[in-house]
Amino acid sequence: MSCNPSCDVIDIGSRLELMVDDFLIEKLKGQASLRLQAPIPREVSLRHDAPWEGNICGYHTIFQDGDIYRMYYRGWHTDAISRDKGHDAVVCYAESPDGVTWTKPNLGLHRFGRCRNTNILWTGVGTHNFVPFKDSNPSCRPNQRFKAVGGTSEEGGLFAFQSADGIHWSLMTETPIITQGAFDSQNLVFWDEVRGEYRAYVREFAEGVRGITTCTSPDFLNWTQPRWLKYPGAANEHLYTNQVLPCPRAPHIFLGFPARFRGDRGDIVEGLFMSSRDGETFHRWGEAFIRPGLNAERWGNRCNYIWWGLVDTDSNLPGAPRELSLYTNESYYSETCAVTRRFTCRMDGFVSLNAPMKGGEMLTKPLIFTGKTLVLNLSTSAAGCVRVGVTDQSGKPFKGFSLDHCPEIFGDDIERVISWKNGSDLSRVAGKPVRLRFDMRDADLYSLRFR
Q: What is the b/e burial string over 103-140, where b = at least 16 CB atoms within 10 angstroms of the residue's CB?
C-alpha cells in the first residue's frame, strides 16, 4: 500500500490511542472500516420507587470514588396523564461497592413529609439538574473535593456547589457562575487534567434546535464566553444532553454520549456517540450507540438517555478483564416509577477498526513513539487474524518487522504485546518516524499504544 511521504508526523509517545476517529489513519484498503460498537444491556440498577422519587427521576451522574461508586440523580414525580407534579424536585443519592448492586442509604439530611429516613441530600436551588463531579485538580481545597453545578434559566443560570465528602453540600456563591445558556438539561463541568482547566458543557438553542456549547475556567468560578460545538458532516438534529467526559484510559480524547431527541416521533430518545481531540469539534456518528431495543419501556417519552459517567466494573464472565459500565433510563413518564439500567462495553470498545473475513488493511500516518513494545486491544474470530508491519516514513519495512515477519495474531485481548519472528523489542526504531501497517481478517482493533 503506497503512502504519502510528506504527511505530518504525529508524536504519540507512549499514550493510548483509540480507534474512535481517523486521527491515526492515512489509508484504508479492502473492506477495512471504522465500525461503531453496541453496548450490552445488563441488569436493572435502581427502581426509583421511593415517595420522593418517581417517574421523572433523571439526570443521573455516576463516578467512582475509591472503593465507592456514587450515583446522584433528581427525584421527581408527575401524574402520567395530567403532568401535574406531585412535589418539588429533590437531589437523591445511591452508592455501590461494585457498580452493579446499588443501595439508597438513609442520609438523615432531609425529611419528606413525615418520613425522616431518606436518601435526599439537597433541596432548593439547582435540584432540577444537580450534576456533581470529583475534582482531580491538584490545587483543589479539601472542603471543595467535590463540586457540582445546577440551575435553570428561571433561577438565573448554573450555580456552583462544594462538598468535602460528596454528601454534605453548600453553595460556593450566591449568584450563578454561568449565565449564558438555556440550561434545561444535564449541564456538566469537569477538570481537564491534560489541559489544566475546568470545562463546562451546557444546553443552548439555535433556531429552535437543542444544541451544546462549551466554555472553560481556570478556577471554576470565572468562565469564558460559550462556544458552539461543531460536528462536521453530521445532521442538524436535537441533542437533548451531551454527556462529554475525558476518555478513562486516554484523557487527551473527549468522549460524548448525547441523546438524540425526536419530537416528531412521540419524543423518543436514543443515545449517540461522539469524540473530539480539542473539546469543540466532534466526530458524531449518525447511527445510534444504544437503540431503544426490544424493551418496550425504552420506547416511551424521554426514555433511553445515557447518563453521565463511565466506570470500570468486573465482568460477569469468569476470568474476563474488567469492562466499562454506563447507565441509562427507562419507564420515564410511566404510571409507576423510572428505572435505571446498566450497559457494558469492553475497555476502549466504542469504535473499532474492523475487517471482515475477506480482509482489509490500514496504513497509519507517520508516528513517533517512546517505549519498546507495541500493545494492541484486539479481537478476532477463531479463523480470523491480525498481522502488523513496521515501516519507515516512506513505507519501507524495517528489517525483521515486516508483515511477512509477523505471525498471525488471533484471540481476544485488551493488551496483547505484538511479537515478530525475532521478538517484540522495537526500541531501535523508537524516536524515529514509523508507520504501522495492519493486515486483518474477521478482526477488530480498538486501541494501540507503545510501552
A: ebeeeebbebeeeeebbbbbbbbbbbbbbbbbbebeeb
pTM: 0.97
Interior angle at CA 211, CA 266 and CA 92, nearest 5: 75
∠433-12-242 over CA atoms, to 5°? 145
17 vs 5: CA distance, rounded Å: 22
CB 398 within 8 A of CB 404: no
Name, in order, each residue with C-beta under 8 angstroms of 355's C-beta and a sequence gap of 6 or more: 30, 31, 32, 33, 361, 440, 441, 442, 443
Is the per-residue pLDDT at 6 higher than 80? no
CA-nearest of 241, 244, 246, 249 to 270 is: 241
The length of the chain, given as a count of residues:
451
**What is the distance between the alpha carbons of residues 99 and 97, in angstroms, rounded to a whole number?**
6
Picking from 336, 332, 312, 333, the residue whose alpha carbon sits closest to that of residue 323 is: 312
Q: Determine what percent of the chain is predicted with pLDDT higher than 90.
A: 96
Name beta bridge partners: 324: 312, 345
Cα 70 to Cα 110, 316, 400, distances in angstroms: 19, 21, 50
pLDDT digits (tens, 9 = 90+) for 402-427: 999 999 999 999 999 999 999 999 99
* pLDDT cut 70: percent of the chain above it: 99
In the beta sheet, which residues pair with residue 347? none
d(CA 448, CA 364): 12
354 and 33 in contact (C-beta within 8 Å)?
yes
- What domains can be seen in the chain, in order of their start residue? 10-36+352-450 (2.60.120.260), 40-345 (2.115.10.20)
Per-residue pLDDT tens over the stretch 53-96: 999 999 999 999 999 999 999 999 998 777 788 899 999 999 99
Q: How far, in Å, are 60, 202, 249, 254 from residue 199 at the CA level?
A: 19, 10, 19, 11
